[in-house]
Amino acid sequence: MTELNTIRFHRLDQQNKTLVIASHQNASPELVYFGDALPKATELDSLYLSQQAGIPQAMMDQPAAMSLIPEAGRGWMQSPAVEASAADRPAWAMRWQLKQIEELADGVMLTLEDSTAQLVLMLDIGLLPSGVLRQQLTLTNVGEGDLSVERLACTLPVSPELTERVSFYGRWCQEFQQVREPWQSTWLQENRHGRNGHANFPAVMVGESGFSEQRGEVLGVHLAWSGNHRLKADYTIEGHRYIQAEALYLSGEIHLANGQSITTPELLASHSREGLNAMSHGFHREARERLKLDKPRPVHLNTWEAFYFDHDMTKLKELASAAAEVGVERYILDDGWFRGRHHDEAALGDWFVDEGKYPNGLSPLIDHVKNLGMEFGLWFEPEMVNPDSDLYRTHPDWALQLPQYEGYLGRNQLVLNLANPEAYAYLRERLFDLFESNSIDYVKWDMNRDYCQSGSDLAPQAHAQVLALYRLLAELNHAFPHMEIESCSSGGARVDFGILNFTKRFWASDCNDALERQSIQRGFSYFFPPEVMGSHIGPDQSHTTSRTHDVAFRAGTAMLGHLGIEWNLLDANPQQRATIANWINQYKRVRGHLHEGNNWRLPSADGRAQTQWALSQDGLTGVAVYSQLAMPKQGQTLPIHLPNLIAEQSYRVTVLEHSPLPGHLMKAKPAWWQRELILNGASLSQVGLQLPILDPESLILLEVTAVPLSENNE
Ligand code: GLA
To answer: Where does the chain bind substrate (predicted)?
Structure first.
């Protein structure tokens, strides 16, 4: 019999979403509801009662609740929230009792305890102003003896009607690929790469049968953590569905002495009844809250694919001048500038300017860049050390490796043990010195290998490594508040909200091939807004796929993120430079809408094209990039529909840029193409707009602007 008078309900409302939690005196708390806003006057006890199911035959007399903290000790026969053990008491079958409730501004903190296991567990759960649900657990050992913690997982119960699942996979140069499957079995993603890796983006999306970008109930769940993790989507024999997300602890990694605690990373979840685009809007709002950008995203030029390790001051300066001419605003000197770094086999760890390449330091280049009106950025890979480096020769014990075994290299390098205070202090000193003695506005913070042997003593230290990294980034942000840090990891192998707390941009992929980028960027966009996605115009022939694309397709694709150039402009002909300058101009004109408005993914019905649509928050200006990715399945282009415009408002449709329209697929262009088209929002969204027939791998950039009422009446 459900005793309602022993239950307390906690309700939160944000962004048309409602979250209701039930806390119990003698059991762990439950999620009563997370979804579209409920009326203010909803009776929460009746709501709770309405969900209490019957007890099936052939099951436990008192089946375990689908709680936010599933308890092995109360009959939960799947993975519980906590798995731990101690030598001096049973600490593996907890039954939590509520000890304290603290109402917070945007959530509630519930403190639970188990006096037998001698543990205290705090659940911090709430609804952020973005409408995103946030959850974290903290486990404290209050017993005398040590506690070994095997698992500590956030659990999010999910509606049993969400029966399809999209998860992510990928590889170097092809990150954020999606796979859609029926949710009929346990789904598990275990990441033991130390970083997230290219294949294990820590997120999953579930939805009702047939959900799409614009339709259906969906839930996206993300773990804000840059290291080993476990994500699980499972269901019980009774019919409960849930998602668990946790930092994965390696064997023997987490020991808590008396009074010590461990906290999970945040689980973040965004809900929508209108498909994946609205789910993404929640995550985009959340990312923007954390980013707090105070100026438009400057156009980048990155030297990597232009020169690799071949740093020649004259050429570097010439490239800077050429970049400034086409409108670049920030120049980033990539790998190859520090002592002994002439290839990728040596020098990581020796963070001193290379005297051979830069006899007068970096200042002559920095001054040149700044005199051209650009900001200056510099590449680092601080967490690494090459065995062939002065640092390693002096401190081989600072690398994460077991002395009993031979080291295991990745890109010829080892990981520096940041949990070692001396190694941390060395690195901190080197970075602070370089940032204090050079005018550096931007850091590309790279990380180019997985961990193995992630410890140098009895226990692994992969978890401590991530925490030390976060601490170092926080210290740098505090000391150099105007310097932006980008997170790069062989492209997009470390993209998550954990590191986003300290960084302002992700390098989404080392692949600058615009066709591959379209799918990489689409996958990236489910959880992150375009302004944090580094996206560059590469050379004519892609360095990673050998495909060739015209400048328009490359530039229009790069424009869908934070635009940059990664191409030796000195090789570009005047015509190409002029085209790039045009695109950069357009980007500067519309980046406000792209980066502050809402963004939609709109696939064509034949699956061969996609439109990226960005609409300003006031609904008055929109930008659409229509990309023809493959041959259309039919002769004509399918109309594009532009959602969320103001229904009665008239808009002018302008073509800003487009790929060449050679005519071999098309005798005549659409009737409106060479005229002015003015149409109301309802028509543009419900009826749509015909576009010219395009070659595969080409695109069109359109602007849609509200026509002022006076002009409309003329
Ligand atoms: C990684 C990055 C690249 C580049 C190189 C430099 O691969 O992803 O963008 O910075 O390192 O070594």
So the answer is: 172, 334-335, 411, 444-448, 488, 510
